[in-house]
Amino acid sequence: MTASETKTEILRLTREFSRLTHTANRPGNDPDHAPFSPGQTIPYAGRVFMEDEVEAAVSATLDFWLTLGSEGEAMEKELAAFMGVKHSLLVNSGSSANLVAFSALTTHKLPEHKRIRPGDEVITVAAGFPTTVSPIIQCGAVPVFIDAKPLTGNADCALLEAAFSPGKTKAVMMAHALGNPFELITVLEFCKKHDLWLIEDNCDALGCTYTLPLEKAKELGLDHLIKIAEKGEHDIIRIADDFLTAPTGSFGDISTQSFYPPHHLTMGEGGAVNIVRRPPLKTYAESFRDWGRDCWCPSGKDDTCGKRFMWQLGELPEGYDHKYIYSHLGFNLKPLDPQAAIGRVQIRRLPDFIEARKQNWERLRRGLHGLEHVIDFALPTHATEWVPSDADNNFSSDFKWDETGCKSDCSWFGFKITIKEDAPFSRTELAKELDDKKIGNRMLFGGNLVRQPAFVQLRRDKPEGMRVSGELPGADRIMNQTMFLGTYPGLTPEMIDYMVKVIRDFAASKAA
Q1: Which residues are annotated as catalytic?
Q2: Is 342 left (phi over 0), alpha (psi -120 to 50) or beta?
Q3: What is the DSSP letter of 319?
Q4: More exposed terminus of the chain, fewer Cβ within 10 Å: N or C?
Q5: Got the DSSP string for 467-484?
Q6: How many helices, marked H, and strands, marked E, lie in the chain?
Q7: Residue 10, C-beta contacts closer than 8 angstroms, at least 6 positions apart
Q8: Do strands 441-442 and 414-419 pair parallel, antiparallel, or not at all (unpaired)?
Q9: CA-based angle 455:251:283, to the nearest 5?
């Protein structure tokens, strides 16, 4: 048997093994998904894959290039095309993506007024995940925390101006919470007014879209998205009825993704930095990702610039090998090529995954309708009210919207609920009940981050290392009252209906 024939047989057996072994990881609407019975664990999130992903991983491993190579290059192009951005760079996690994205804005190669230097301030939101904020501190800048809205989980953008400090504020960096876009129109207006960078942490929000009036998009300089929409060739970026719709992660200057198993697609570990519209940022981000080197040749390739031994930088002698010239204090944050092979298959599944998350959110929301007296349910940003459809089997949300003309279409990372203060049970009591019934649930990550031990210690060790703008009652409410359940594509209807039953039974027992 030849090597090619041997590989073909290995991959055939790989698919058969996966089909027999991983039934619990198939999409929830797949007829071959493992059946569910009450008492089995319902994760809040997890890997959703089929034979194709396992075959791709094994095939790439058999080729044994291992380090980021052809699969990674292809995935970067495919992700950039999906997002409608100039470039995507793969990294080894979403947290690394945030670190690389922020570090890129500290480079000495930027104009001085745009470079983020130690002591400069970056506005962020108090509620969320710590590694949205950590890179700000790790690079010597100062996070300025504003409050969050419990209904959306996102920043209260009316507080941006109060947090602004002339001459010190250089950027806004915050996440689209749980797959719900933050108020992009307000943040973009603020950043344009003050000439600030916008870093979108899109790790929880791949596949979300945001719609705003076309005239406003022109005012905000979103020409890169308008041009794509006018071509009419992109599946997501479009213009209709004088409104522009585009994915979150394509509005700011730079954005980030996570491909950890709970996220919208997975590589096991992994993430990406999206360069939205300023090509030089790719070079800077790539340098920080790849040891800080000045050379941009991919692994295994030499002399892309055509003058490998003709550079003179720093105090090095002229002609020093460009592959070993370092312009930044960088890292090594690349993933592996077999991971990218998995990710490429997952990208093809994204439209189905996104739709499943929306339908799972809707099934939960419809199932828990009537508990509004004890639970505040999340709303998409700019929505004022959830409007259930008339048909019981029509799992499609409708909402009433505010006067801005903007809308959010959420690729929900989770089903967020906030227990009302006068409810006959607490958030913790409900979480324990769900845990007892083996139903996965989580807090909204770190809650109010400024109350986390790491940030309390930062205030003690270096009081000037962070700043809180105003009070944080919304972030405190999220910390004390908010939790979320799963919406990931591996959930079956039976799982969701069981989740609904447990919550409704628990609420009824406490009301009795």
Answers
A1: 263
A2: alpha
A3: T
A4: C
A5: EE-S--HHHHHHHHHEEE
A6: 15, 18
A7: 58, 62
A8: unpaired
A9: 80
**DSSP class of 216:** H
Residue type, 322: H
CA distance 48 to 321: 45
pLDDT for 390 beyond 80: no
Helices of type H across 290-378: 337-367
Under 8 Å between Cβ of 257 and 202: yes
CB 340, CB 59: distance < 8 Å? no
Give all domains of the chain, ordered by start, each with its CATH number: 293-326 (no CATH), 350-511 (3.90.1150.10)
Stretch (H or E) spanning 461: helix 453-461
* pTM for the model: 0.97
Three-state secondary-structure class, residue 304: coil
Sequence length of the chain is 512
Q: Which helix (H) or strand (E) holds 506?
A: helix 493-511
Q: Element (H or E) spanning 168, and its range?
A: none
Segment 32-70, tens digit of pLDDT: 999 999 999 999 999 999 999 999 999 999 999 999 999
